[in-house]
Amino acid sequence: MSKYVRAATTADIPQMLAIIDQGRQLLAADQIPQWQDGYPAIADLQADIDANQAWLLIVDGKIAGTAALLTTPDPNYADIYQGAWSPATSDGYSSIHRIAIAGGYHGQHLADFYFSNLMTLSYQQGLRQVRIDTHALNVRMQHIIEKAGFTYRGIVYMDHDATDQRNAYQLTL
């Protein structure tokens, strides 16, 4: 099996959206409200591509995963509750968002490989801290995040919405 990560292009959006939709359905089946309001949408994926922040997991020549690696501060991470971020270094941090693996690839531990590559990309860009969040009910993703080496740091709220609470994690490279 050959696998690698590459930058996404606008031509990849239909496949990226299909993977996001599969993730949305899985979350709905688990009764997790995350991604049930139309986010992420085509415009979000295009913005990631335009900012050179969209990365695809390729397995045997096919798109098996999609993610965004943001290299600018995430406004949702400005305030953290019931915890704290590790002291930030002066060079900032990256954050992983909109990550999903295509349904036909579940159970192959590809998320481990994907996270490792995203961490490498962060490191190559001079960012030694990586942050990520997930819904408090998303136990599957929490396991994957912790397995990748992230530490739980507290709670963040999306767009200051008290009903949209997320568990926040951080990893220092």
TrEMBL record:
Signal peptide segment: none
Gene3D superfamilies assigned: 3.40.630.30
Pfam families: Acetyltransf_1
Domain N-acetyltransferase positions: 3-173
Lineage of source species: Bacteria, Bacillati, Bacillota, Bacilli, Lactobacillales
GO molecular function terms attached to this record: acyltransferase activity, transferring groups other than amino-acyl groups
Keyword Transferase among UniProt keywords: yes
Protein name per UniProt: Acetyltransferase (Putative) [Lactobacillus plantarum JDM1]
Keywords tagged on the record: Transferase
Domain of life the protein comes from: Bacteria
InterPro entries xrefs: Acyl_CoA_acyltransferase, GNAT_dom
